[in-house]
Amino acid sequence: MNLLEVGIPTVPLRGMVVYPNIVIHLDIGRDKSIKAVEAAMNEDRILAVVTQKDDAVDAPTVHDLAQMGTLVKIKQMLRLPGGIVRVLVEGITRIHLMNITSMDPYYIGDYERVASEFEDDVELEAYRRLVQAKFGEWAEEAKSVTDEGVTRVMELRNPCELADQVAFLLPINNLKRQELLEELSVARRLNMIVGILNMELQISDLENSINNQVRQSMEKAQKEYFLREKIRVIHDELGDKGDPEEEAEELRVKLKALNLSEDVHTRIDKEISRYSRMPQLMPEATILRNYLDWVLALPWNELTEDRLDIKGAHAMLEADHYGLEKVKKRILEFLAVRKLTGKNSGSILCLVGPPGVGKTSLATSIAKAMNRKFIRASLGGVRDEAEIRGHRRTYIGALPGRMIQGLKNVGTKNPVFLLDEIDKLASDYKGDPSSALLEVLDPEQNSTFSDHFIEVPFDFSEVFWITTANIASNIPGPLLDRMEIIELSSYMEEEKLEIAKRYLTPKQIKKNGLEDYKVKLSDAVLRKVISEYTREAGVRTLEKTIAKICRKIAFKVVEEGGDAPKVTTKNLHEFLGAPIFVDQEREKKAQVGYVNGLAWTSVGGVVLPCEATTMNGTGKLALTGSLGKVMQESGQAAMSYIRHNAKALKIEEDFYKKLDIHVHLPEGATPKDGPSAGITMTLAMVSILTNRKVRSDIAMTGEITLRGRVLPIGGLKEKLLAALSHGVKEVLIPKGNEKDIAELPNIVKEGLIITPVKTMDEVLAKALV
Known about the structure:
Elements: E1 4-13, E2 23-28, H1 31-42, E3 46-51, E4 68-80, E5 84-102, E6 108-114, H2 121-142, H3 147-155, H4 159-169, H5 174-182, H6 186-217, H7 220-238, H8 244-258, H9 262-277, H10 283-297, H11 310-320, H12 325-341, E7 349-352, H13 359-370, E8 374-378, H14 386-389, H15 402-410, E9 416-420, H16 433-441, E10 449-450, E11 457-458, E12 464-469, H17 477-481, E13 484-487, H18 493-511, H19 523-532, H20 540-560, H21 572-576, E14 591-592, E15 594-601, E16 604-616, E17 621-624, H22 629-644, H23 655-658, E18 659-664, H24 678-690, E19 693-694, E20 698-700, E21 703-704, E22 710-711, H25 716-725, E23 730-734, H26 746-751, E24 753-757, H27 760-767
Parallel strand pairs: 1-3, 7-12, 7-13, 8-9, 9-12, 15-20, 17-18, 20-23, 23-24
Antiparallel strand pairs: 1-6, 2-5, 3-4, 4-5, 5-6, 10-11, 14-19, 15-16, 16-18, 21-22
Helix pairs in contact: 2-4, 2-6, 4-6, 8-9, 9-10, 11-12, 11-13, 18-19, 18-20, 22-24, 24-27
């Protein structure tokens, strides 16, 4: 029994027929049709589309519409400029127009759903196979259907859907399309489609035959003469008298001078020959010439002579950088190996340290000390593999990768190449640049690196690779495995003072034109700038602050004339304003539930107080202060340790049933994470539960386990420097970090009592009064 559809918004179509199970865009321009679409969108998105018999009729009546249409569902609606509405619809079923019940404000019609008639299954299966075979032949000849469309047709098993899908794709007129829509017998519909496909195949064969006859009738010599004369005239009009053969000969002279290997020479020579035979107006000729210019401009065998004077290189490094002894020693070792072996050691240095400690400037000094050219490429945010390997020549605007570009710019194949911010590489659908870097940095592979643009192997083994990173753990593992990590730790106050005196202040005095005014910043002024106006691991902000002082002095010299004003600790605020950082005074008295913890941040170490308190409750543990997941887990581990050892700690064993414990790390707006606050939180909770005071002159760092073992941590130097500046006398560190004490500066070892501990019992014995 056919179903009735009453009161359906209707759109008359001009020049188009929609079939069931077909998804298609319709561009609607008539006001009534747009209102019908809007009405359908406001209800159930169901719309009737019926083809007009005459496209010229602007306001069709029921007599101007075909009797068979399609019920569709609106999937998407988009308003375009010019008042056009584009809708994406999917055909649902054939419908028979019963009546148009309203034409204002839009067409509304009553319809009867019509089902297709399925005959003998064997006959339909035969038709299905025949249609798909014929369609495959036609699609291969016509080239007008996408591979996706062909695949979709070939996978259909429903004869009715197959007939509608092929009818939609065939290049036939609307009368024939409407005829296929109105044919309810699936077998007769498939038979009609077979006839149409046979006719299209015959037309295609005839077209091919005609084209072959025309092509053969054109004499080859006449065609070439015509094209060459046309090119010659165009060149004459443009004033371009260049001869491709002459250009090719010039390119071959350049190629011969490069003294390349036989394979590479042969390949490039073939490209030159191809270029000479290619019409100059072809777009590919420009692409090929650009490629040849790049290849012939590369420093295939150009080398700068290394300066292998160890003492001279050492003096140059000392003049440019204060401290960094480990790094300087490693550079001198590299030069010594180079001097003895005559080739690179194959190592890739990775300078890891916080911002502003001089990683990039140190790489510049290395190049200067070795008498090599210097290249810097920033990898921060690079997510396209083509940035490393280059683009294929077929792409518009294709270029080689950054490595090849860098070598071309400096003109040598053995520069110092700095890959900055390697820990900030990213990856997405365009590829993984970190994987592409593996071939560049691996000494076993980079002698035959292949750029996608150059397409011939290039030797990178002579390059001295240096990379920089802020955090080594963010570097992809395979890359990290190929590099030698050299840590650049935070500067101490004394080191910052020396750097400011030797490098930063003279540089800024010269930069701001104050060389003739005897400007001088005393040690006391610089110490105050370091302690009260900058707080960082490196010296980048310190240099900006000194520059600010110099600008203020320059302004006063120009405005008031005479000598430059003297900067003292008393008038420093006139140049920089009120101090930015004011250290909180250390608690002088031992307190219950208050412990000095130590933490590492990207700008150095800090003293991180930890407070604990209790209140009547049901054993809840609150951990606040913007704590990360790892630090919260440390608090949970501390609580478990205390409950397990309550008897030994002389705490009531059911304390967790009566009390709530709140642990807070001040400066709650600053996020904090990491395991090294474990013993600090444990001690604070034990102190508050036993009502025993904690020494105010002691600080600590270490991770705790459920059994009370103290595990090693990182950033020891920075944490101890923070403890020293805070006025702490003794610091408890994990026993596992005892090996790091030997590398600490003397000022730290002499100014602090450093006590390694293995268990929480030792921490309690040392810290509780």
